[in-house]
Amino acid sequence: MLFYSDQNSPRLTYILDLISNEIFNEAFILISDKDAFISCTGAKLNYSDERLSGNEFFIKRHGLLFETDIHYQQIKRFDFLGKPAFFETTGDYPFDVFAASFFLVSRYEEYLSFQADKYGRYPHQDSLAFKENFLDFPLINYWLEDFKTTLRQKFPDIIFRMKDFKFIPTYDIDIAYSYKYKGLKRNLGGFFMSIIKGQWLNLLDRWDVLFNKKRDPFDSYEWLDSLHLYCRTRAYYFFLLAKKQVGVDKNISPGKPELKSLIAYHAGGYTVGIHPSWQSGDEEAVLMEEVDELEKIIMTSVKYSRQHYIRMILPQTYRRLIDVGIEKEFSMGYGTTNGFRASIASSFYWYDLKAEKKTGLMLFPFCFMDSNSFYQSKSKPKEAFSELMDYYRKIKQINGLMVTTWHNNFLGTDPMFAGWKEVYEVFLKDQIYWDM
User: Fold this and answer.
1) Distance linking the first and last C-alpha atoms of the chain
2) Is the pLDDT of residue 274 over 80?
3) CB within 8 A of 282, min separation 6: which ones?
4) Do the beta carbons of residue 196 and residue 262 sit within 8 Å?
5) What span, in angstroms and rounded, lies between the C-alpha atoms of 126 and 117?
6) How many whole angstroms separate alpha carbon 214 and alpha carbon 212?
7) Residue span of the structural domain in which 43 resides
8) CATH code at 330?
9) Taking CA atoms, which of 62, 204, 218, 320 is between 20 and 30 Å from 140?
10) Phi/psi of residue 199, each to 5°?
């Protein structure tokens, strides 16, 4: 489809690539020759300040895509076809879908000043999606479905891309085992804490596990293997490899042969990535050490990652990951609530807004994380299942990408997480399985 603009910019070419990839099989053909555009008789879109011909699709541009700085944007919401929209304009479409999509997918608002949460992260409460109540659905995908319908009314012969629903199950291995392989000091401390608190069942449970009388409560790996085999799906595992067990970095030491064996086993049948520790956010050298350690274990380069505790600040975090060779990143979501942080259920390349350039880092946004439902929303398993199904239906409607994040401890036998394993099994077997 011919796309006319008398100006060009990195922002414009970026969002044109993203949107054309979502709705067309081929990219927009960007031209700035007004006479050539007017003389064209095929499907064409005019993105400028004035209408040029009677047989074009015209959107009067907002201006965001041609700015070169980052500043507060005046956002005035209105409803279009029952969905929120902004950057209202004139022409054949009521708002600048290109500028509005760029604002959301680039995470423009996260480059502005904000009051960080207790973990130093961008708070979801500050986001436009939360304030305007569209955090729980992929607004950009919905916009593009409406946009295609409107374009087809103008150009009935236009051909759009056929998309399929996709599902990617992912797991963060923050604490590989509850009791096993943690060493004498940590287990003795656990025994004494159970005695002090009168937690006799926990004490007996630890004893039985350490003496191989029962499976570790966080060991859900064989069960997951069976589930993936039944559902014919390949999963992504992200392993925490912090050398120092401090703060929220609580996994067993990467020097333990048992953890190395666990990682090597999963690398043989699944996609394995790095789960950068909290400590790596303070020191880039630590991140490089963790990546190097994982590469030694899996005997190949590390291309996948997701931040531990979703510790992420733009653009620094993504730039660091690019520097250590990461190509596909799974942290685009919140660590405090579920939903669509970038308002899209599709993979997309990260745009470095401060550098004003498209990067080679592909982002895979997740919409659901078990710990958000359990710790933040205080959801029961039945409520979490309803939430999962709500996201599934919304993403299935637009044939988008659904990425979920789970932790091995939620899917084991720990009484704290009773019922969550069953929720996940029913979800995969009764819903996702039939779409694979």
Assistant:
1) 32
2) yes
3) none
4) no
5) 10
6) 5
7) 2-154
8) 3.20.20.370
9) 320
10) -90, 75
